């Protein structure tokens, strides 16, 4: 269940700290310097995403999103934002950090960092990569990474 992935400490609430942990896991998995511009951009985009979601989902304004708040309103966010535009800035920041060799594509090796950061079992990396490599060129474009991030955040 997606709520449980986003609530990565199991507290029963999605909080900024959950997004911080995910950002740090991605930074660590890519081997990026914790103080690098790419790492800072990823952190900033996770913070912005959490704030945008909390603004719309945290109906009791306690600074966290309960399971009930999440499921009562999550569909509205993705349909009113217009094809997941809410996730585009995070996709760009994550892509720039994941693309470690700067060739404008993400290889399977680079993609492993995404899987590690999001708790994907290692045995599933290749299948997940192939699923999102929609043009079959053996690498992932920014759009294909964006599609992966959409799927991760939007699957309920």
UniProtKB/TrEMBL annotation:
Coiled-coil regions listed in the entry: none
Any single Pfam family the record assigns to this protein: EF-hand_7
SUPFAM superfamilies recorded: EF-hand (SSF47473)
UniProt xrefs under Gene3D superfamilies: EF-hand
Single GO MF descriptor: calcium ion binding
PANTHER family per the UniProt record, alphabetical: CALCIUM-BINDING PROTEIN, RETICULOCALBIN
Protein name: Ca2+-binding EF-hand superfamily protein
Organism field: Saccharothrix violaceirubra
């Amino acid at each position: 269940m997606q709520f449980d992935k986003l609530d990565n400490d199991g507290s029963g609430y999605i909080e900024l700290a959950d997004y911080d942990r995910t950002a740090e896991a991605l930074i660590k998995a890519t081997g990026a310097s914790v103080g690098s511009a790419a790492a800072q951009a990823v952190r900033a985009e996770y913070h912005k995403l959490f704030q945008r979601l909390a603004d719309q989902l945290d109906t009791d304004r306690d600074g966290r999103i309960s399971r009930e708040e999440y499921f009562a309103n999550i569909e509205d966010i993705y349909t009113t934002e217009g094809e997941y535009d809410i996730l585009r800035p995070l996709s760009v920041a994550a892509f720039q950090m994941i693309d470690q060799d700067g060739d404008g594509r993400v290889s399977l090796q680079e993609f492993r960092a995404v899987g590690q950061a999001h708790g994907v079992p290692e045995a599933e990396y290749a299948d997940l990569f192939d699923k999102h490599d929609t043009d079959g060129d053996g690498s992932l474009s920014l759009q294909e990474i964006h599609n992966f991030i959409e799927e991760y955040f939007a699957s309920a």
